[in-house]
C-alpha cells in the first residue's frame, strides 16, 4: 500500500495562481500596454492594411461593414468598411454605415491582434471575444492583416542563428 507522500495527488502538482487557484497558468511578467494604447495600435494596423492593395483588395471583397470594439473601453469602436475591393477605417461616431458584423475583444486580445498573434476563432470559442453577424467571412481574410504585421517564417529558413552557426 502506498502512502500519499509516496504517490502525491496529481492535482497538488498543478501550478497555483496569485489567488491560490490550482491549474492556473501564471501571466506574462511583461507589463501590458494600457487599454487606449493597445486600441490605437490596432487601428493603425488596419489603416496600414487599407493602404496596402494586396491586403485591402481581398478584404474588400467580403462586402461587409465590421465593427471592432473593445470590451474594456466604453464607447470605443471602429468601423472597417470592406467593400468594392477596398478596406476603409472609419470612426464609429461619424459613420453613417451600420455594421453587419461586430467583433468585441478585451485588451489582451486586442494587443495580440495588433501584433498578428491572435487566433480569433479560438478567442471566440473560448469566450474571450464576442461577435454578431456573419463573422466567418471576416475571419477568412483577417490572417492577411495579421501576416502583414507578423510575417510567417519562410519554409526552409531557420531563425535560430546559433543552430546555423553549429551546422556551418
* Contiguous helical run count: 6
Shape: globular
- As for the CATH topology of the domain at 35-147, it is Nonspecific Lipid-transfer Protein, Chain A
Largest sheet: 5 strands, mixed
Note the beta-strand portion.
15-25%
The poorly predicted ranges are 1-33
- pLDDT averaged over residues: 77
The CATH superfamily label of the domain at 35-147 reads SCP2 sterol-binding domain
Radius of gyration: 21 Å
Q: What is the CATH architecture term of the domain at 35-147?
A: 2-Layer Sandwich
Write down the CATH class of the domain at 35-147.
Answer: Alpha Beta
Question: Could you tell me how far the N terminus lies from the C terminus, measured between alpha carbons in angstroms?
Answer: 56 Å
The proportion of residues forming helix, as a percent range, comes to: 25-40%
What is the structural class? alpha+beta
Q: Give the SSE order as H and E letters.
A: HHEEEEHHEHH
How are the strands of the biggest sheet laid out side by side? 3-2-1-4-5
Total DSSP E strands: 5
Amino acid at each position: 500500500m502506498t502512502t500519499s507522500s509516496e504517490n502525491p495527488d496529481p492535482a497538488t502538482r498543478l501550478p497555483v495562481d496569485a489567488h491560490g487557484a490550482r491549474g492556473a497558468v501564471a501571466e506574462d511578467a511583461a507589463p501590458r500596454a494600457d487599454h487606449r494604447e493597445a486600441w490605437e495600435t490596432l487601428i493603425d494596423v488596419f489603416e496600414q492594411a487599407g493602404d496596402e492593395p494586396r491586403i485591402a483588395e481581398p478584404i474588400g471583397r467580403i462586402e461587409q461593414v465590421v465593427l471592432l470594439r473593445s470590451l474594456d473601453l466604453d464607447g470605443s469602436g471602429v468601423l472597417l468598411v470592406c467593400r468594392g475591393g477596398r478596406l476603409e477605417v472609419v470612426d464609429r461616431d461619424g459613420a453613417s454605415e451600420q455594421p453587419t458584423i461586430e467583433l468585441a475583444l478585451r485588451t489582451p486580445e486586442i494587443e495580440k491582434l495588433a501584433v498578428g498573434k491572435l487566433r480569433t476563432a479560438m478567442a471566440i470559442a473560448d469566450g474571450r471575444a464576442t461577435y454578431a453577424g456573419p463573422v466567418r467571412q471576416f475571419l477568412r481574410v483577417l490572417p492577411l492583416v495579421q501576416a502583414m504585421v507578423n510575417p510567417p517564417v519562410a519554409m526552409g529558413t531557420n531563425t535560430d542563428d546559433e543552430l546555423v552557426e553549429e551546422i556551418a
